[in-house]
Amino acid sequence: MSEPTLIRVLVADDHLVVREGLVSILKNEADMLVVAEAATGLEAIALFRQHQPDITLMDLRMPELDGYDAILQIRQEFSTARLIVLTTYDSEEDIFHSLRAGAMAYLLKDAPRQELLSTIRTVYAGHKHIPSNIGAKLAQRMDGAELSDREHEVLQLLAQGRSNRQISTLLDIAEGTVKSHVNSILHKLQVDDRTHAVVVALNRGIIKLSPY
What is the pTM of this model? Predict the structure, then answer.
C-alpha cells in the first residue's frame, strides 16, 4: 500500500503560542506535515521560496511586512500558491484586500479546529473557502464605492483631527481640492459629516489610528 499524500504546510504568525498551537493541531493529522514556521512577513516569503509548501497559513499583522503584502509577493512569484488567512481581524477591508492579494480562504482564529482542518484540505484540493459570516462582510464591501489613494490620505488626516487647511498644506494640494475629496469621501461612505466618516472608516478597517 502506498503512503498517503502529505499536505505540506507553512505556518506564519508572529505569536509563538499561536504557532505552537497550530503546529500541535496539524501534527496530529495523518495527512499533514508542518514544513516551516515564520514569525514575520519577510520570513514567510523566504521560507515559502525554500520549501514551496502546499498550503500556507498566514496571519495579517506581522513585523517587517504584513500578511497582505506577503501574500501578494508570494503569489506574484508563485502563481499557484495556496494561502489561507488565519487572523483575529474581520473588517471588510481586511477581508477584501486579503482575497484580492490572492488568499484562497479567510478564517478567524476562533474558528473550530475541524473547520481549520477541512479548510486546509479544501484549499489543497484547489477550492476557495469563505465562511458565511466572512462572505456577508465581503458582499457589503463589494457593494460600496472604493476610495482613491488620495481619498485614503485625506481620510487618514481627518482621523487625526486635521482641518482642510492643514490637509492642504500637508498634501501640497489646494484647499478647494481637499474639500472636494472630503465631499467625495462622505458620499462614498454614505455619511453626513467628517466625524461619522472617520467612525465608519475605523469600524470597516479602511483606516487605522496611528499608535503615535
Answer: 0.70
